[in-house]
Amino acid sequence: MTQYEAIIGLEIHAEMLTNSKMFCGCSAAYASAPEPNTYICPVCTGLPGAMPVVNKKAVELATLVGLALNCTINEHNTFARKNYYYPDLPKGYQISQYELPIASKGYLDIDTPSPLAPLPKGEGNDDSLRPAGEGSGMRVTIRRAHIEEDTAKLAHEKNSALVDFNRAGVPLLEIVTEPDMRTVEAALDYATKIRAILRYLGVNTGDMETGVLRFEANISVRPVGSEELRTRTEIKNLNSFRALTRASAYEIERQIKVYENGGIIVQETLGWDDVREVTVSQRGKEDAHDYRYFPEPDLPPLRLDRAWIESIRAQLPELPEAKTQRFVTQFELKEKEARFLTSEKALADYFEGVVSKSKSPAKTVHSWIAGEFMRYINDASMDVKDVPVAPESFAKLIDMITDKTIGASAGKTILTELFTNGGDPAQIVKEKNLAQVSDEGFILEVVTKILNDNPKEVEQYLAGKETILQWMMGQIARTTKGKADPNVARELLLKLLEERRK
Question: What are phi and psi of 244, to 5 degrees?
């Protein structure tokens, strides 16, 4: 039976965080509009005679992203009219970039290996073809990143369609890859890293549920070993990682079945039915010539000064990959631990804030953030930047656990109090009488009583059922309300049990 491999390219549409729209002065904050069709003007509704003006901030943000993705920033770039008719496109065309985009020929390294895709080749950053399994990742080539405007929004009611133009004209950045990826896992890895970079740069919120970040997957399949690029389909408007992975996996399997049954793939645009989990045909896939691109006559070419481009480069923050490697080196974390912390800039900043105030090892801080801290965040559906616990308070709490002022159980109680009511960890320990007890005399009395009260369990342990030990430790913690030093308690417990064995 013929074995197939997938050929995947991604287009990512990211709304840019500007105050005004791409070509007019209307507010870009369409989500907060008091009602439909209020943030509009003759330009963004396509009225005759209206003249567009380029949003400088959007150009700055697009340049910033291009630099972060190792692209060449084209000092001379132009806008074009992309002609197609759809009810949410008021002018009957979209102002975009075609032949001369603002950024091109970039790349992004990802962790997922991909068969026969370009990978980094040493210091010269030359690309080479390396089969899967050699190396720990791959390089995804970015063909272009170009500026365009978003469309209006349609709402369908029975036999009618309503149009809200508040979103029309909002600045969009479209990032297009070459068809480098061979697996759904690689596509997910790439999309996840792009989202993180956009959030680090402050270009996009990354809130996919609201549609500010959308994926489009171009997919074809071919026999393993073949070099041909077969007919592709495009899955439009995937607004979650789940939709991206499930739609791509389904479409790959669908195309393989078509070929195995002697059929042919038709080039078309597909949608993803999230309920039935199938791709559905929307229209025949257009090629570039179908859009009848021509230079936008109302906008002059953009000419970017080299010094201005370098001033934008100077604004680049430490990006996720660089921060990950620094965390591994500086804090002696495992790469998986560092990647978790750097997945969100706010989380990485919080971690560093706690570490800078704490005397405890960075690994201990990571354990508490990855554990109890994230549990509270997730349970409350809270953003890290809105956490009510200051880094210095969390650092003080962790240090009290490290120096055995309190136990881990008491630490969880105090963290709950900090999230709920705030306060000072030391004061909470005092008020709730949570200080850990290391007095051997006190703990010895507790351990002796528990052994005397549970002779059956003692016999089971002495007979070889060592799991009983953990149960006994739980009884000690319960009796002392978690205040007994677990190390002291365990040592005394083992000592008394061995004495009874004799």
Answer: -60, -50
